[in-house]
Amino acid sequence: MRLLPIAALPVLIAACSGGDVNATGNQAAPTARTAQTASADGKPFRTEVIAQFAEPWAMTFIPGTGNALITEKKGVLKLWQPDGAVIDVAGVPKVAYGGQGGLGDVVLHPDFASNNLVYLSFVEAGEGSTSGAAVGRGKLVTDGNTARIDGFQVIWRQAPKVEGQGHYGHRMAFSPDGHLFITNGDRQKFDPAQDDAQTLGKIVRLTDSGAVPADNPYASEGGVKAQQWTKGHRNPLGLAFDAQGRLWSHEMGPAHGDELNLIVQGKNYGYPIVSNGNHYDGRDIPDHSTRPEFEAPKAYWDPAISPAGLMIYSGDMFPAWKGSAFIGGMNKPGLVRVELNGTEAQKADVFDLDGQRIREIEQGPDGAIYILEDGGRGSKGRLLKLTPAQ
Prior knowledge:
Keywords: Signal. The chain has two helices and 27 strands. It is mostly beta strands and about 400 residues long. It has one domain (about 15-390): TolB, C-terminal domain (Neuraminidase, 6 Propeller), CATH 2.120.10.30. Strands 4, 5, 6, 7, 8, 9, 10, 11 and 12 form a nine-stranded mixed sheet that branches. Strands 1-3-27-26-25 form a five-stranded antiparallel sheet, with no helix packed on it. Strands 2-24-23-22-21 form a five-stranded antiparallel sheet, with no helix packed on it.
């Protein structure tokens, strides 16, 4: 269905530069790179509202078109076009909608230009009241004002399906060498994050067809452990490769202690044994510093920001931000910038975006930054386009 374009509404957003705390808890001073991005009045970008969606969760741009695929949590896939038109995409799998569950991430095959393969993550129902995340793929076919996913097939399932509707994770990213990485939350069950017989609380690595690569760290052990790349995660809701091919992920801490992690093959990130946050009932969790055998985060947030979406900027529109990581904040609404320097990370800026929860961040083909607001149940989340203020 072709919808009428939504008029763009320009909005200027003020920046709050250099006011966050760094990973050691000290006040972070504004950096030279931060100063270069700001205009005289302190506003480094202008924001246009270019569309609205119902509970949007993820987006990805289609090369050579300017179009983007956008998922809505209730189980709808949209094809957004720069002229403002929005098309419903048919052929999307049935989803188990509720709590944190529904239609999730969307990414393109590295060879999309030749095979048109689109990957979707979603939550599917199991026996009784159980559910679990899954990933499938199919070919995107567009014909005038219609679009569909042909031949959609599930290539991977979270194991096991459990009760509850939280912490599915199911963010995806393709590595430069064409492997598919998928995050798995602990499903609010804690211990599975350290259990090698489950994918829960892990980041898994697969081939583009869902098979186990022979060079995975535990490939020879078989079972779901063979899929495992790293473990000890709580609820990873951001996943991205930097220009050097390093994989970064962020995850929500329990009560505070949200993390940005450099993902290294075979490492254990410690949850629920260690965390820089505590249990919601106030019980203490030892900090990472007490157990050096676990991989510590490169940055963490206390108080929490509730991170969602992760993009590492590589465009030319904001040259001073090239190489920076951008994270959406839902608990502390806004856009968070983190400077990456090799294998290290330094928190830099927090930008208030009208006090809205941010679910997803993507770089457009023009180098602009595109942001999806969370929207929440029963409300609309705006698609925002950020361009330089001057």
